[in-house]
Amino acid sequence: MIIGKIVAIDYNKFKVQISAEITGNVINSLGKIYYFGNIGSYLKVNNSIGETLICEVVSIFDEDKLDKNPSFNSNNIRSLILKPIGTKINKSFSLGVGIFPTLYNDVSIVTHEDLEAILKSIEEVELESKVDYADGKHFVHNDIYLGESKNLIQYQMNVNITKLFNIHMAVLGNTGSGKSNTIAHIFQEIYKKTSYSAKGSCVILFDVNGEYKNAFPKTSYSEINIRYLKPNLHQDDKNQYDKFYLPYFLFNLDEWCSFLMASDATQRPFWSKVLDECYRFYSAITENKEHNNIIKTYLFHNIYDFVSNVLKRGLNDTEMINIVNNLAIDFLDILREIKSILGESDYNVIKSAIEELKTNCTVNFGNNDNQVQEFLEKIQKKIYSKEEKEEVENTMNKQFNKNIFYSHKCLIFATKLCLSKEKSIGNNRIGEYTSTLITRLNVFLNDPEFQFMREENCEIKVEEKYIEWLLGSEKERNNLIIIDTSELSRDSLEILTSILCRILFDFRKKQVGSKRRENPIHLILDEAHRYIKKDSSYQFKENIFEKIAREGRKYALYLMISSQRPSELSPVVLSQCSNFIIHRILNERDINYINAILPYLSDDITSKIKLSVPGEAVVFGNCVPMPMHIKIQKANPEPNSQNCIIHEQWFKN
Fold it and tell me: What distance in Å separates the CA atoms of residue 640 and residue 258, rounded to the nearest whole number?
């Protein structure tokens, strides 16, 4: 239906004069009501070659040529300013305008049918018309309902599921603007579909504020597997959550060093040796059950190494016995650490040998008379019989592997053993250089905050078993995994999210061929500014989120980031997002940051972002052909993120 004509054309806007017979801003067309005279509403005009230009109303005013005094009667000449958005050619739509309209071209309303043709590609229309496919697959769910359009009032906005989820996405907005509601509503829409339900999905939601469990009760989604996980469970939590584990033995060297804040020059090489020694010692313990002498031989081998290292330094006998005696004292301390592991018999044998070494640490007029050397030869005979030589060589050649289990209870033993080994080769200041690392290690071993890393699950000894425990099996996949991290400190939150995402990234990278595109994983990063940082304060050496943002799409691993402070987010992560749902943002720094990263963000979109009320958002990117201002549907049930009603809480009987 025609509502007016173009009376002026500029390079980025058109002026439209509304026909005198149209007295209001509402038109009834085929039983549907259209509001054409609102800021943000859509109108259309044809250019000289028959293409349809879709335009947005950006200004409305009354232009009375007969009377200069303000007047508000319906007979005044009303005008609109339109901003061209894109061009519709046949059934396809693209942003931008090539050929402009001419003066006095008719301007018409954009109907629901027009908008549907614009929002849905030809491929989507064809897909909806099909039911069965040759390969036996059956697709019935192509889109989800997002909310009601603010541009075309009463028009329900659906978005294509694949276009929304096959690339990284960002949900941004000030606190209280509706981000949590948007995320909850989107996945409620996905999981409430019962016929051919989303059993192939796998969504991991890092619930930083503990609000999403309320939005996804298991009783409402009988066909979907939902898990509630929480690290460090309290007694009250045990009936509501399963215990979340992040096994320390899956940490790689970089992650350990970042967690312990190890310096690159001294502490990192030292910690690498500690992990190797810890793994050797744990292997010796476990293998000792089958071959009784392995752990004893392993310890004798270390005593032999320590003393040999000192003798090789060419010291005089007085210096030599002082160092060997101190090492013997250190080794007795180490031995007490593992007394319960060794058993009484082995403990006494090794203790007796060390005390014998101490007895041989004497000098007579500055001469030891080869007592220490003779002790060394005696130890050598104990450990270098043919059978025991093979056993100890196998053990000593083992090295740390992040995918194989070792006990954290062995870390202190391994640390002390490595300190003694460094002292035996003359590195006497090693204790001073590694003191901060050892302090942090003690925090890891004793602080209740890190219990979820230390806790051992007897069924999880390798990475593959951990992945299966978290994601489920191929036959029984976990579809929505909500990890409540609301009680973790900032450091623990960063550790949990970073290491878990790295494990999942490594897992997806192992998939080859068509398996890369099967069983996608979506990571919802709530309050992402807390752990997706843009500066050097990031705790880990490698920002795994930037790596996933750059490479994750190839392995069907996708990010959905939610943040109230975009300016604190990594620009790499934000720039790799191709779908945006932006709620109200007032902070100029955040607005400027988004503008700098997304240069196609226009001033009009920015104005809409600033003026949006809670629950409204501007949606743009791959999922929609043009920016849309939408009132997001309210989640039901809502996440536990409502505001406190102060007057109800203050004024009571």
Answer: 34
